[in-house]
Automatic annotation (TrEMBL):
This is Protein-lysine N-methyltransferase EEF2KMT. GO terms for biological process: methylation. InterPro entries: FAM86_N, Methyltransf_16, SAM-dependent_MTases_sf. Residues 3-59 form the FAM86 N-terminal domain. It comes from Bagarius yarrelli. Coiled coil: none annotated. GO terms for molecular function: methyltransferase activity.
């Protein structure tokens, strides 16, 4: 296979692939990718490839968008495509994009399926839905409840769940899936008991000192439930050590204990900055 054939093959398996055409990544990402592909081809001294320049011209002529898609392949070959906002913060929330701790938690879940398999799972602050969709496909929980409090996030969640074949009820996975609004500050005991979670997870929810208090109070309600005590796992990217220390201090004040998860993900499934300081803790009632 010649160098030109290799470049054409790469183009067909990326920007011209049916998945990319149906659920395209951000325009900026595609521009950078194609520009780099052309640069590398030109450095070989081969004749220019019209197909590469046509693809770049199409992207350069496209209008800027506020939303894009991110697509991932699980080790099983299952494809996950999520619609996300291009901007990290929009509509007054950070929940319309996927953050590193969610990718980290999803990798950890796939290596610790016993924490989820056959259980009722509750996710706090589900965001775009990456962790939940991955858990539903790879870990086969009995039920999975995606939650958030922002209407734009809930709307996006429902879209992404439907687009990935889960729907309300779980699609072909056999998992009963629901999307619910859950306000941490005003969550009622009856509401939590109805969900009946056996495993509770959350990713990148410890980022603002102002919401630490209501998060800890909610965790205390869950962990101190006399009828059913769930396992609780929180995945956090430690961007601000002060905020993270504040979170752990508030857990102690509430009679809760945080223990770092024993293992870290071994298999690299998703692309994210591996240098980032990310930690999964298990929260339980202090002895």
């Amino acid at each position: 296979m010649s160098r030109s054939d290799v470049m054409l093959d790469i183009l067909k398996k990326t920007c011209l692939h049916p998945v990319c055409r149906k659920t395209p990544p951000a325009l900026k990402y595609r521009r950078l990718f194609l520009s780099e592909l052309i640069k590398r081809h030109e450095s070989t001294g081969f004749e220019p490839l019209d197909e590469l320049y046509d693809a770049l011209a199409e992207v350069m002529g496209a209008e800027e968008e506020t939303v894009c898609y991110k697509t991932y392949f699980l080790p099983s070959g299952q494809l996950i495509s999520l619609e996300e906002n291009v901007a990290m913060v929009s509509d007054g929330t950070t929940g319309l994009v996927t953050w590193e701790a969610a990718l980290y938690l999803a990798e950890w879940a796939m290596e610790n399926t016993h924490v989820f398999s056959g259980r009722a799972v509750l996710e706090l602050g589900s965001g775009s839905g990456l962790t939940g969709v991955a858990v539903c496909y790879a870990c086969k929980p009995k039920t999975y409840v995606f939650t958030d409090c922002h209407q734009s996030v809930l709307h996006r969640l429902r879209q992404n769940i439907q687009n990935n074949g889960l729907n309300q009820g779980g699609g072909g996975t056999g998992v009963s899936v629901r999307v619910e609004e859950l306000d941490w500050e005003n969550a009622r005991d009856e509401e939590l008991q109805r969900i009946g979670a056996e495993t509770v997870i959350a990713a990148d929810v410890v980022y603002d000192p102002e919401i630490v208090g209501c998060l800890v109070r909610l965790l205390a309600k869950l962990v101190k439930n006399p009828k059913k005590v769930p396992e609780v796992y929180i995945s956090s990217t430690i961007r601000n050590p002060g905020t993270y220390t504040c979170f752990k201090r508030e857990l102690e004040k509430a009679g809760l204990k945080a223990v770092a998860a024993v293992t870290h993900p071994v298999t690299q499934v998703f692309p994210y900055d591996r240098v980032s300081s990310i930690e999964i803790i298990r929260v339980h009632a202090a002895a």
